[in-house]
Specification:
The protein has about 80 residues and is mainly β. The chain has no helices and seven strands. It has one domain.
Length: about 80
């Protein structure tokens, strides 16, 4: 699951089960010339055998990510 902003504001709420995969939830921004924002709430997810459960990356000069991460569970393989 990913939320990315190339031209506007993106909002997402994730509540899922992720199992045996390299990535879970990703939020990132792109470009340098406009305001790009991602607002994401990552709540009540279960990550089983996920190498990178949450990835957040702000790119460029004006990328902004507001992330709320609460009540998630990470389990080994």
């Amino acid at each position: 699951m990913s939320a990315s902003a190339a031209d506007s504001l993106v909002s997402a709420t994730a509540e899922n089960w992720f199992e045996q995969r390299p990535h879970g939830i990703e939020a990132r921004t792109y470009y340098d010339t406009l305001t790009h924002a991602v607002e994401i709430t990552i709540r009540n997810n279960i990550f089983v055998g996920v190498d990178k459960p949450v990835s957040i990356s702000e790119a460029g000069l004006v990328g902004k990510i507001t992330a709320t991460i609460e009540d998630n569970t990470r389990c080994g393989r």
